[in-house]
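Hi R.,

Here's the chain you asked about this morning:
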Amino acid sequence: MRLDKYLKVSRLIKRRTLANEVADAGRVLVNGKPAKASYAVKVGDEIEITFGNRPVRVRVLSTEEPRGKDVARELFEILES
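And the predicted structure, written out as tokens:
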């Protein structure tokens, strides 16, 4: 699954266009390296998103498309916020 789509379906970022812009601006790191919106997310990847001056780190638990909004939280675990 693409990084921008993953950020949207996991509800870390509300809109895919915004996720695309944030990733292309270099504010999303995957495993410590800047990643473009087209990066293919894999289970076990650590994603760090910078919201203003507050970084949020999560670990990818699943890349399957969720069936509803209540299971979106099961796609990742928060490591640091």
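The two ends are 24 Å apart (CA to CA).

Let me know if you need anything else.
M.
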